[in-house]
Amino acid sequence: MAKTLILIPSRMAATRLPGKPLLKINSLSIVSHVFKRAEEANIGEVVVATEDQEILEDVLKNGGKAVLTSNDHKTGTDRIFEAFQKLNIKNIDYILNLQGDEPNINKSDIINLNNLMINSKSEIGTLAAIIQDDKMFDNKNVVKVVTENKLEKDNFPTALNFSRENLMMGSKNTYHHIGIYSYKVNTLEKFVKLSQTDREKKNKLEQLRAIDNNLKINVALAKSSPIGVDTEEDYLAIKKFMEYKL
To answer: What pTM value is reported for the model?
Structure first.
């Protein structure tokens, strides 16, 4: 049976909202909320990968597991690969990179992505949701993905392109990309050895490195778009939503 490890990269030095992993919602930090959602998916061991002692201590205090990594990584993928090497857990087939700033991620979407990866033996998989508001096409903080075929509940089509720009309004297969990735272990090892491409650096989207190097990314349909916490406004919005919901 295939074995999955969930790794959550997290650091204090976010450009737009420094310290966001430790901001509290219902008295629990954002990163610890993500950890608990990942645990609830029950698909494998969950570990936070961080360069910050404060995050490590918070996760441990809240019953989670974390590992310290270097503070000079260019991307979250580099961070999770170092964590994977440090943990030295044997017989892992897939590594799922879960974003540390999406505390309301739907656990069934995590489970579905993992199942599709295993059943299709895909190299890289990610999630996308239907765009409900046309304003999202113009929002450069919203990453869009174009897929080869229309996303359905149980299919897993190939990604053709990713963009922050409103370049794809006319495409019927354009969706809101959710930055969660599942990798076959040998594919992750190959990916982190590749140099950053010009498109990746220009768009600040590391998934373009995979496409530019002919690594296939499959896309699963998410039930909803989680709220990513990038700004103070995002934090206040999701805090209100999650505290009201409970």
So the answer is: 0.94
Confirm if 105 and 98 have CB atoms less than 8 A apart.
yes
Closest CA to 226 of 180, 191, 160, 157: 180
What burial class does residue 27 get, using C-beta atoms within 10 Å of its C-beta: 0-12 exposed, 13-18 middle, 19+ buried? exposed
Q: Are strands 174-184 and 144-147 parallel, antiparallel or unpaired?
A: antiparallel
Q: Are 4 and 92 in contact (CB under 8 A)?
A: yes
* pLDDT 10s digits, 64-92: 999 999 999 988 999 999 999 999 999 99
- Distance CA(42)–CA(23), nearest Å, equals 25
Which residue type, as a one-letter code, is found at position 99? Answer: Q
For 52, list phi and psi in degrees, rounded to 5.
-110, 125
d(CA 69, CA 83): 6
**Calpha distance 189→85 (Å, rounded):** 10
How far apart, in whole angstroms, are the C-alpha atoms of residue 8 and residue 41? 14
Q: pLDDT tens digits for 89-138?
A: 999 999 999 999 999 999 999 999 999 999 999 999 999 999 888 888 88
Residue holding tokens 């974003």? Answer: 99
Q: Apex CA 59: angle with CA 143 and CA 230, to 5°?
A: 25
